[in-house]
Amino acid sequence: MPFSAERLPVAPFDRVTEPSSVKILRESRSELLKPLLFIAEFCRRNKNKGLNMKVITMESSAFRSLTEQIAEIAAHVRAASGDKKAASSDRLLTTREAAHLLNVSTRTLQRMRSEQRIGYVVLRGKCRYRQSEIDRLLEACAVNEDAATPQELKRNHTLRTGGKPKGRRT
């Protein structure tokens, strides 16, 4: 007779008289049998593929502690990978994306590279720009409307005029 995890129908009067410990035992037993049924189904499906599987038995308390340890390790791995993602959130942009963000042409971006006004990285023969470098350049070239000190006024004037004197000065 094939093994099945389904419980047999129980008469209503048996449910009332059943001790709670037996009920807990049945529920925990069915929970423990689920992985075994999954393994049995996996073996049945892969029988013709030549997989050699051995069944390892262990106490349920040892199995629970093992799964808890695996869950802790997985949490540490997720936390470590999250830290790396937070640290390396500096995205690399293509030339077109950087030119669009800076509102300049790709030729102007090339000129900025050759004048070393913007940092870049060459990957597989293509120039990439860090998002932080774009943000730095935008911040450096932004005109401050609330200039209070003479240095800020001079900086704003230099940014607006391009830093070159206009007209004839002697």
From TrEMBL:
Indicate the segments forming the Helix-turn-helix domain, all copies.
92-141
Read off the InterPro entries from this record: DNA-bd_dom_put_sf, HTH_17, SinI_DNA-bd
Q: Where is the signal peptide?
A: none
Instruction: Determine the domain of life of the protein's source.
Output: Bacteria
Q: Which GO terms describe its molecular function?
A: DNA binding
Q: Which Pfam families match?
A: HTH_17 (PF12728)
PANTHER family hit by this protein: HELIX-TURN-HELIX DOMAIN-CONTAINING PROTEIN, PTHR34585
Q: What is this protein called?
A: DNA binding domain, excisionase family
